[in-house]
Amino acid sequence: MSVDRRRFFTLAGLTALAAELPVLGRARRPEGGREAGPGGSGTRWAMVIDLARCHEHPECTRCIEACNRAHNVPRIPDPRHEIKWVWKEPFEHAFPAQKSPYLPQTLRRRPALLLCNHCDNPPCVRVCPTQATWKREDGVVMMDWHRCIGCRYCMAACPYGSRSFNWVDPRAYLEHPDPSFPTRTKGVVEKCDLCEERLADGSPPACVEACPAGALHFGDLSDPDSEVRRILDGRFAIRRKPGLGTEPQVFYLV
Amino acid sequence: MLEKALTGDRRYWSWVAVLLVVIGVGACCYLRQLQTGLGITGMSRDVSWGFYIAQFTFLVGVAASAVMVVLPYYLHDVKAFGKLTILGELLAISAVTMCLLFIVADLGQPQRMLNIVLHPTPHSILFWDMVVLNGYLILNVVISRATLLARRRDEAPPAWVRPVVWLSILWAISIHTVTAFIYSGLAARPFWLTAILAPRFLASAFSSGPALLILLCLILKRFSRFDPGDEAISKVAVIVTYAMAINVFFILMELFTALYSDIPEHLEHFRYLFAGLEGHSRLVPWMWGSIALAVVALALLVNPVTRRNPRTLALACVAVFASIWIDKGLGMVVTGFVPNPLGEITEYWPTLPEVLISLGVYAIGALMVTGFYRIALAERGEVGRP
Questions:
Q1: What is the pLDDT of residues B62-112, one digit of tens each?
Q2: Does the bond joining B158 to the residue before it have cis omega, within 30 degrees of 0?
Q3: Which of these, A106, B110, B318, B341, has the minimum number of CB atoms within 10 Å of its CB?
Q4: What is the predicted pLDDT for the residue at B383?
Q5: Domain coverage including residue A60
Q6: What CATH number does the domain containing A106 carry?
Q7: Per the CB < 8 Å rule, is B109 touching A149?
Q8: Number of domains present in the structure of chain A
């Protein structure tokens, strides 16, 4: 049988393409189990942050430290490469739409605690090309660090700057990594996971537990008797950039 | 067919050697990036896309622009473009390859890139971009291969090529539209959140791509016996003129909406580009340079005397290409991130390894164009000194 060179290359090319076909046709991996929330069906986790109470302790960073410890968040000195799950930001930056020259002194230049809003309609989930980030039924926006390809489309899509990318190897910046929680590799995106590992055990998120001022409240929005619902029923709360339709599930009492 | 690329004189091989050196340097830098992470680039938590994604966006335009010679030839029977279509298609193959390489260079975990195929996600525009870019690559490989083989046998291309070409015309529009949708659908980034982004991308593509094609033709004319014909060149020049005028018009539309509505979160990005924001003004001289080049280009193109003179036409084409490269390859992507959603400013500038990796990718594209055009010319016996 004679095969000339062109025929050979054509066949080789088609064979390579054919080898990809079963991959293309393969169904999505079963997602069962990923969806089930630990709080039972219908649970909708949310957080209420009382800024006035938080401001009573201006130097306090207990929540941030608890989070960083619990999740092996590295302390990278270069601000360009920082990893942030929970952090403080001036009120005017957190709520640019509320900017006003007559902002009360109790808010002006005072920090607001920021974290992933675990949006009900998360743009990061919409854009992710590999479903490495997805929303659970209980509202937690999750992140699979082993599937993430590091394209950073989610970072461009997040209107809250809540996502960090591992520009360098984070393990080099961890002094005492906690073996009970995974560390990350370079080249993947990460963010607050609302302590889903603690929710599974029935505990509140680490930041909520660590707050000495009782400024952080956590609970189930679908339960009318929950603490968060009772607070929201009685007090006016604002959310970050509500006009974008992302439906943040983190509420701020001002 | 491919062996034709392996024959050439001393000058041909010196050019290939130069490209191989640039590719080698880029490859070494890329290995370093793989080892240490994307931290060796100028990107940051705030400006999380930079030079790579900008080059990808610019080159999608170059790839799509082949349609500007293919469409008139196949749909309107413009015979003058007979010699140009194959060059446009081969340029498209090289440009799409560069696009794909730039995406891979930008990935934090490139070894996982098949996850896009393993977990197909129709609600992600990036998934569709993968589909249209690879589809466009395959279409152009099939078309140009069939065309070149037919030419070797002195036959007309087989009949099935025509419908495939029609598909490729629609496909060319789609690649740049979908690429614009990556940006224009993000509520988080007011700078990109504009319906005119896709039309603007197409207009800038249809001026910068054909401008490059004219330059390549003029180079080929000088170094080989290839002659596309004066009529073909002047027709492409008219296309460049119209597309560039439309592109500038679209930019002015965008500026009007931003300036007149005076909404701070829209306006601030334009202020960063053209005036600087809170003392940060790294892109300002570049953007004014882009405007100056666009004005010079339009002046030379609109005037029929300078448009018909090969020297001034070449100058105009360089100006068009440079103006649009600055706009898309430097300003457009980065400015979406400055200021960030919290109103803070982190500036971006590519680092040396980042630029060398990018140059390496461009050199791969140049090497492909060199080899492909050599084959295309050899099949017609047009290699050798003029």
A1: 999 989 999 999 999 999 998 899 999 999 999 999 999 999 999 999 999
A2: no
A3: A106
A4: 73
A5: 42-253
A6: 3.30.70.20
A7: yes
A8: 1
Please state, rounded to an integer, the average pLDDT across all residues of chain B.
Answer: 95
Q: Quick check: B37 and A78 in contact, CB under 8 A?
A: no
A129 touching chain B per CB within 8 A: yes
Residue A160 contacts B, CB cutoff 8 Å = yes
A190 lies in a domain? yes
Give the residue on A whose Cα is nearest the Cα of B130. A129
pLDDT computed for residue B329 by the predictor: 96
User: Which string of b and e fits A90-107 if b means at least 16 CB within 10 Å?
Assistant: bbbbbbbeeeeeeeeeeb
Residue A10 lies in a domain: no
For chain B, say whether A181 makes contact (Cβ under 8 Å).
Answer: no
Angle at B16 between CA B13 and CA B19, to 5 degrees: 155
Predicted local distance difference test score (pLDDT) of residue B386? 63
Domains and CATH numbers, chain B: 2-378 (1.20.1630.10)
Amino acid at A250: V
A176 inside 8 A of chain B by CB = no
Chain A residues touching B347 at Cβ < 8 A:
none
B2, B115, B342: residue with CB nearest A130: B115
The alpha helices in chain B, defined as continuous H runs, are: 10-36, 51-64, 67-75, 84-106, 115-118, 125-152, 161-184, 197-223, 230-261, 264-274, 284-302, 304-308, 310-326, 333-335, 352-378
> What is the count of residue pairs from A and B with beta carbons less than 8 Å apart?
152
Residue A26 lies inside a defined structural domain of this protein:
no
Check whether B178 has a pLDDT greater than 90: yes
Q: Which of A94, A129, A187 sits opposite B108 (nearest CB)?
A: A187
**Residue A115 domain-assigned?**
yes
Q: What was the ipTM of the complex prediction?
A: 0.93
Q: What is the pLDDT of residues A93-130, one digit of tens each?
A: 999 988 888 988 888 878 999 999 999 999 999 999 99
Alpha helices in B119-229 (DSSP H): 125-152, 161-184, 197-223
B37 and A29 within 8 Å at the Cβ level: the answer is no
* Contact residues on chain A for B36, CB-CB shorter than 8 A: 168-169, 186
| Residues B327-369 pLDDT 10s | 999 999 999 999 999 999 999 999 999 999 999 999 999 999 9
Query: Where residue B385 falls among pLDDT bands split at 50, 70, 90?
Result: low
Cα angle value A27/A30/A32 (rounded, 5°): 160
**pLDDT tens-digit map of B130-145:** 999 999 999 999 999 9
